């Protein structure tokens, strides 16, 4: 299974220069905790709901006059959409990150994968394999 | 294994009447995404970093003049600390919640359990059992 | 969840003095790979289909004139039926065994648990928890 | 991860015409529960320790004068070594089988994969991902 099949393709993107106020409302409407920031059609950063709390509110800044450019985390890693799940896991290990943008060969964003998506997939497969083992004759 | 062994005992509590500004800073310092609200020594609500975004910032309210009382989610369920993991899982199924306060027999808060804690424990046990099966003779 | 709930209660037992020929046929009819040997109403040993191959056939012995007493593995460990799954896992770790007889307080056999049963249960729970996480709002 | 990386390459093969007596001893020496039967350099069947019990001993046949040809299970499915784990799982679902021979493009045997191998791999990955989630900041 490639990352392309696994990833969530309805990722929400915003342009550089978008205000934090707008992003906060978008996160509420779309029921998401994270947006990807785009610069010249390429993903360049990521902003989470928690970033808004820590980097804007706790600093006493105004969400209206603060922009994603100022608070985004730079993308340290994107996953290639043709990569297999297991190769992706090798890359992801050792990074304290929970979400990974997925790009095509030209570096254009095609989706996002979270560790929760991966846990779900592994859990489903584990259950499938365990069910086969259980149903197989003479396991007792 | 009882929930008591599994749960995180360093849960951060705040009294009713605490301002959202204070809670936001506490979440940053303690590196947590959630606090439990206490009323008369009993847990009565829960506030997450996301709640601050949705229920305060997006509504244009001031974190300084808004209080946990106004934005907390009421506790729909607490887990008993003597409960086993599997009974707890039965209770937790069907609820769209990720964090569960844990209480003793008198209803006093003793910790908090997240679905992530449970995933970690199940993953660890799965790996242990799979390792025994792999090492056992003549599995091929 | 106690081991009592998890274990397979239709375990097949044979008395000391039963011939290997009889046991082999029982394993075929009941579609099982293992029987428990009983002495004075207490479980004392275990015979698997593989034991019959290694300890009877490969030695050129006759299944008709060989008895479970001669080829059984002594029980190194039984699990108490009131034990929780997680305590049972602690005991089971480090043993290269796949099947564990379950007894009540008086040492009477009440069932059998295999590592495959445990894998199945853990896989099912993992899948349940992962499904809750996936359905929970704003995980992206 | 391809099936090629996952599979056990030290699979034991026997030619058509090998006696069950020889196979039984081989299973003991090599500590395996299954051999693959080869015809003209291609895998054509599979014999397990349990097959010897059910199809030879229980029928009163002599292991010396019975041959793998008479008791083997025909191969219903082989996995291609270039196949990914997840595609392999799709193929494997719904079959009540525990072991799958792996072949290269020319149909030559290169290894064998068991459901236990797959459980082990999934368990290891689950544990890895759960560990990342646990270590990640602010999950509480």
Structure description:
4 copies of one chain form a homotetramer. The first copy, chain A, is of the alpha/beta class. The first copy, chain A, has 6 helices and 7 strands; from the N terminus they run αβαββααββαββα. In chain A, the strands form 2 sheets. A 4-stranded mixed beta sheet of chain A has the order 1-2-3-4. A 3-stranded mixed beta sheet of chain A has the order 5-6-7. Chain A starts with a helix and ends in a 5-residue tail after the last helix. The interface between A and D is medium-sized, with 30 and 30 residues.
Overview in brief:
Chain A is of the alpha/beta class and 140 residues long.
Key descriptive features of the protein:
homotetramer; 140 residues; alpha/beta; four-stranded mixed β-sheet; three-stranded mixed β-sheet; 6 helices; elongated
Sum up the overall morphology of chain A in one term. elongated
Indicate the proportion of strand residues of chain A. 15-25%
Structural class of chain A: alpha/beta
Stretches of chain A where pLDDT is under 50 for at least 5 consecutive residues are none
- Count of DSSP E strands of chain A? 7
User: SSE order of chain A, as H and E?
Assistant: HEHEEHHEEHEEH
- In percent, how helical is the residue content of chain A? 40-55%
Spatial separation of the terminal alpha carbons of chain A: 32 Å
Question: How would you write the strand order of the largest sheet of chain A?
Answer: 1-2-3-4
**Would you tell me the overall average pLDDT of chain A?**
88
Kindly report the greatest chain-chain contact and the residue count on each side.
Answer: A-D, 30 and 30 residues
| Largest sheet geometry of chain A | 4 strands, mixed
In terms of quaternary structure, the protein is: homotetramer
Discrete helix count of chain A: 6
Radius of gyration of chain A: 18 Å
